[in-house]
Amino acid sequence: MAVANSSQYLEAYADRFADLSEKSDSWLKQQRTEALGQFTATGFPKARDEEWRYTQLSALDKTLFLPAQKSASCAIDVEWLKNYQLADAWSIVLVDGFFSAELSQLDGLPAGVVVSSLAQSLADPKSALLIADKFNQAVNVDENGFVAFNSAYFADGVWVHIPAKQILAKPIQIVHVATQASVAINTRSIIVADEQSQVQLIETFVGLEGAYVSVSVAEVFVGQNADVTLYKVQVESEKALHFGGTYVKQARDARFRHDNFALGALIARSDVHTDLNQASECEFNGLYLGIKRQHSDNHTRINHLKPHGISRELYKGVLDDKARGVFQGRVVVAEDAQKTDSQMNNRNLLLSNDAEADTKPQLEIYADDVKCAHGVTVGQLDEKSIFYLQSRCVDEETARNMLTFAFANEMVDKVKIKSLHDVILGQVLLRFPQEGVNKEWL
Amino acid sequence: MLSIKNLHVSVGDKPILKGINLEIKPGEIHAIMGPNGSGKSTLSHILSGKSGYTVTDGSASYQGKDLLDMAPEIRAREGVFLAFQYPVEIPGVSNVYLLKAALNSIRKHHGQSEVDAMDFLTLVKGKVRLLDMDEKFLYRAVNEGFSGGEKKRNEILQMAILEPKLCILDETDSGLDIDALKIVSEGVNSLRSPDRSFVMVTHYQRLLDYIKPDFVHVLAHGQIVKSGGPELALELEEKGYSWLEDAEASA
Ligand SMILES: Nc1ncnc2c1ncn2[C@@H]1O[C@H](COP(=O)(O)OP(=O)(O)OP(=O)(O)O)[C@@H](O)[C@H]1O
Ligand SMILES: [Mg+2]
């Protein structure tokens, strides 16, 4: 049975689907058809789904967001983009979900390293073969309605392949830029880091003013003993809706780190899932800031499937005005995953009486010899600390700002790429009163 | 410098200070001793402006101004410094950052410009050496993970840099090892000057061997029950407090 909100979308996206389907190889055509079937059956997620009960999705019913069209890259002010696009990284830019060769900077990539448009790579039989091997392998099309929507209708995205033993000297940045209002931007990224490679990636989501929906699915495959760090910087426009899923598969001894900065958008939902193989390690860090009426929903899932895995997770939320933050962190330790060592923490700071934080850590442990810890806090600024700062000449408002900033800055400070650190710091300071926080002294 | 008259302070309905009178002139050192729970920290807190207390009677004036009327940060900028009995950990704010913020707000309060970055560093490093601290402490978060003694030393470092006029030291000596006590005392002594006064809350005579007080007061049950010269501390060391409390009870 088609659900109310999805039926409008099915109709509006029928031409897009026919067009994409026709261009796709048979394997992809099949994937898209399956995804379409799934989306037809379930539509976008509903509040009655346990995993989605906090996420506000009514905007998708109220407005029909049409498929984004390819727009001219010249619509973008290059100077403005420099606020987000790092000069010291290789970068690939997607404008409204379509690859822009003009804005991307991929000169000097080492031989064998591929960073390219997904659509273009699918047209190339050799890389299409590699992509076919990975597509929807880190996520199932029935994971949720957005994955189905994305799999059915994505037009472009990014394909990254790091060959074995390759250690990249510079980070690779994927910049998603939204320029149109009232559209849905649908991108798919597939990132493969072969065994013993090392790479740092950055996904930046940024938009001009306007209400749009950004749906992004990234699948990341971390090969044996490879080391991948993925920073996500979500600074979508104030009215945007953002639905981003990052689905990771780690091979034996693989290390994966994800730093999630959820700063923008009116309604943002982020899912980060990883499957840990034997002795693989993951580190999830997150910072969500909410002001005005922002809603920031952060879901993580760490599946310990094999023995000796290590996971570390720390998400922090700062919520002011009428903002709402959600953290749902799930750690699953399979029967076979003995000697798992897992820690999950979520800390929330409420700055106003109307702000809200919902935190829900979930541990599901089926093995008996494991070390799993978790802790959550929701609180206000500590009065003792405020008085201590006041006794050191700092006025109360500045003291509050300093403590708020310090709370958030713990996450910013973890970013070791200087240029990226500065971009994120600037974005954090933009969203909170800067009074008393002297950037030059930091 | 500081004139406390008939000061009564309660927490909720509970009276804690019951009529304190104390006159402190510039350059003087006053030691305050007294049993646990007698109100020594409460007095320190009320002077530095901590909230949660009610002044039910009396007054405190500092340099001729009504001290109790000022916001805590104004008192601090005017030169009142409290070295906490239990210094607070402030994760995420580095020591050097707080020192700079504090120093600059004092300068601003007095109509001066921000301190020059190089001058500041020279000043701070000098004081760090004076207190025999590791420079690494400057870049660590304020008191976070510091040992008890390190926290106390850090309080004195802040004091040495901010150069207050009225220094209130609440049990700065407790938690310090013998060597540290000597170093901290030397740091305090180096700050002695004719226009700077000290209030030292302590339980031990030992501190007073290093920092010679002009007056010693005994606070018991929220009142100063006896005042005298340094010899009073020796007498307390020998006899404890009970003879005073007995005297108070029979009075
Ligand atoms: N916030 C509060 N609520 C209730 N009682 C309080 C509060 N603050 C202080 N008191 C009480 O006031 C009394 C004085 O406490 P204060 O900390 O001033 O003692 P002190 O002389 O500094 O003791 P110590 O030598 O142990 O440091 C104690 O009985 C204490 O329990
Ligand atoms: Mg005390």
Description:
- Chain A is of the alpha/beta class and 442 residues long.
- Chain A is 24% helix and 39% strand.
- In chain A, the strands form 2 sheets. In chain A, strands 1, 4, 5, 7, 9, 11, 13, 15, 17 and 19 form a 10-stranded mixed β-sheet that branches.
- The longest helix of chain A is centred in the first third of the chain and has 17 residues, at 26-42.
- Chain A is globular, with a radius of gyration of 21 Å.
- Chain B is of the alpha/beta class and 251 residues long.
- Chain B has a single domain, classed as Rossmann fold (3-Layer(aba) Sandwich), CATH 3.40.50.
- Chain B is 41% helix and 28% strand.
- Chain B has 10 helices and 12 strands.
- Chain B has helices spanning 40-48, 72-77, 95-109, 117-130, 136-139, 148-162, 178-191, 205-210, 230-239, 242-250, and strands spanning 2-11, 14-24, 29-33, 54-62, 65-66, 80-83, 90-94, 141-142, 166-170, 197-201, 215-220, 223-228.
- Chain B has a 6-stranded mixed β-sheet with strand order 6-9-10-3-11-12, with helices on both faces. In chain B, strands 2-1-4-5 form a 4-stranded antiparallel β-sheet, with helices on one face.
- In chain B, helix 6 packs parallel to helix 7.
- Chain B is globular.
- The A-B interface holds A 383-385, 387-396, 398, 402-403, 405-407, 409-410, 436, 438, 441-442 and B 48-51, 71-73, 76-77, 81-82, 84, 87-88, 90-93, 96-98, 100-103, 105-106, 109, 141, 158, 162.
- The structure holds adenosine-5'-triphosphate (ATP) and magnesium ion.
- Magnesium ion is lined by residues 40-41, 85, 170-171 of chain B.
